[in-house]
Specification:
The complex is a heterodimer. By secondary structure, chain A is mostly beta strands. Chain A is 0% helix and 54% strand. Chain A is built from no helices and 11 strands. Chain A has strands at residues 4-7, 10-14, 19-25, 32-38, 45-51, 56-59, 62-67, 72-77, 86-92, 102-103, 107-112. In chain A, strands 2, 4, 5, 9, 10 and 11 form a 6-stranded mixed β-sheet that branches. Chain A is globular and about 40 Å long. In chain B, a hairpin with a 2-residue loop joins strand 5 (44-50) and strand 6. Chain B is globular. By secondary structure, chain B is mainly beta. Classes of the chains: A mainly beta, B mainly beta.
Chain lengths: 113, 115
């Protein structure tokens, strides 16, 4: 089955700086890669996703890059703000998203004021 | 539009007792998922339904866990008997399957504590 590794487990950055979270996956059949943000005690919420036919996708301060050859994808957050503090999860799916997701273990992002 | 609804939000039981969780997906969403999230970990898929059919239950511990989605809408996940290691958050998610997005929308979860 699919295995998703996520690094780092904790990331602390100064407000206004950029944050980068990296994930690798094992199943070359995976074709859908979403990123979820989860605040303490809340539900995971999708912040951005990318499909295997695209190398990069941006949405305002958030961007995701995908390297299919190396089987890794990354989340980039620019101009970080206090409200970006949360746990971020990467995930992968081989069914275009409708199949079950395999999640990484999460990254606790801390934005220092 | 209402999101995915789950109940109860919190449940405390003693080991060996049965427990059930209920999920109401977003209206019109054919695909429903149950995930388990341990503290400090990412969600892990337990079972996926397409309408009323369980199409992927390979990760469901069938000796004690069961699930149903009788009319292809609401779903119930049951544990009998519960063990200490079952303490976790049980998340339900739904997806429209068709259309331009495959996003999975999560419910708030049920936090289970087994004493």
């Amino acid at each position: 089955g699919e295995n998703v590794e996520q690094h780092p487990s904790t990331l602390s950055v100064q407000e206004g700086d950029s944050a980068v979270i990296k994930c690798t996956y094992s199943d070359s059949a995976s074709n859908y890669f979403p990123w979820y943000k989860q605040e303490l005690g809340k539900r995971p919420q999708l912040i951005i996703d990318i499909r295997s036919n695209v190398g990069e996708k941006k949405d305002q301060r958030i961007a995701v890059t995908l390297n299919k050859t190396a089987k890794h994808f990354s989340l980039h957050i620019t101009e970080t703000q206090p409200e970006d503090s949360a746990v971020y999860f990467c995930a992968a799916s081989s069914g275009g998203g409708a199949d079950g997701l395999t999640f990484g273990k999460g990254t606790h992002l801390i934005i220092q004021p | 539009e209402a999101g995915v609804v789950q109940s109860p939000r919190y449940k405390i039981i003693e080991k060996k007792q049965p427990v059930a969780f209920w999920c109401n997906p977003i209206s019109g969403h054919n695909t429903l998922y149950w995930y388990l999230q341990n503290l400090g970990q990412g969600p892990e898929l337990l079972i996926r339904y397409e309408n009323e059919e369980a199409v992927d239950d390979s990760q469901l511990p069938k000796d004690r866990f069961s699930a149903e989605r009788l009319k292809g809408v609401d779903s119930t996940l049951k544990i009998q008997p519960a063990e200490l290691g079952d303490s976790a958050v049980y998340l339900c998610a739904s997806s429209p399957r068709e259309g331009r997005t495959d996003e999975q929308f999560f419910g708030p979860g049920t936090r289970l504590t087994v004493l």
